[in-house]
Fold this protein.
Amino acid sequence: MHVDVVDARDLVLVLPARKEIYHNAALTRLKTLCREAMYQTIRAEPFHRLSHASWLEARLFCDAFPEAIAQLPPWTPSLARDSYRDLPGFTAIAANAALYDDMDALDSVTFGRALAFSRNGQPGEMHHLDGSTSLTFYSPIEHFIGYSWYERLKCYVRTGERFCEADGSDTPLGRDPCTLRPETITLQLGDQFGGGLDLPTDLALLEGVDSWTDVDTVQIALTKRSRLDPGELTDYIIDAVFSPSDDSDADSYDTQETRFRYEAAARVHAMLEDDDAATLAVIRMVFADRIAWRIPAGRILRLSWSMSRKELALLPEADVPTSDTTAPGAIAG
């Protein structure tokens, strides 16, 4: 806010530079007049989004100053690679509105998957929970705390999760403590009023014992009947875990992301298939990224590689039987 001072003999400038105003009664009165003019201007607008603290001050200057409009940004997941959270625009809150206060990217991505799981593959808004309990989730706005409409909203946080077998018993840890394949996964949520909400899902990502930024240590729980394919699961892991280094000696963002994607894909294929599938998946990705574009159109690269034998040949496409490119273990496009 800018103020043009026309005639204010009681305002005193601080010597010698005269770049600041001396704090006296005249300056205090000027600030009061400025606040009054500011709040009267805001009062004339159709709505406002003042913080609750500013609203309390505004009521000292303007009678019947209304509360902030009941609008919030729809909930969106925060990703590990983002340095800040870019919230979407504010919208009017729905009748079934609730807040979700996620703790980190692992929690955020897991909750986002649970919302998608509730829609059973059907299209819909990403912040909607469908099913027997229908809720529309919004992001918490701390400076709205205190408004009557905001205080009535349930604010959920994740309090735990349960991994169960078909008979309802807890899924035991297997050979790999970082990987679980239960029959069901239930996210347990609680609100500030003492209420709870059980949220079925098919994926849960949790912080590992040593680190949450390492593909090999993050805990992954995926139900046995999950319909997520390897590519989708890899993307979820990247969203929840990949946090690029900005050190001066670090590789570029693209190089770090590519390397992390290879590692995530290897773990996913090992989890869903076996170690051979994981090895082939990474070879396929590296080949597609760095080599495939060099093969001339209408030609086929035949590759046989081991520690003792290395063969490479470029052949006319017509000379290679289709069965050669679809045999078990072949690197297909």
User: Anything to note?
Assistant: The chain has three domains: 1-68, 70-205, 296-333. The helical segments are 25-43, 52-61, 105-118, 148-151, 230-241, 253-272, 275-290, 322-325. The CA atoms of residues 52 and 144 lie 5 Å apart. The chain is about 30% helix and 20% strand.
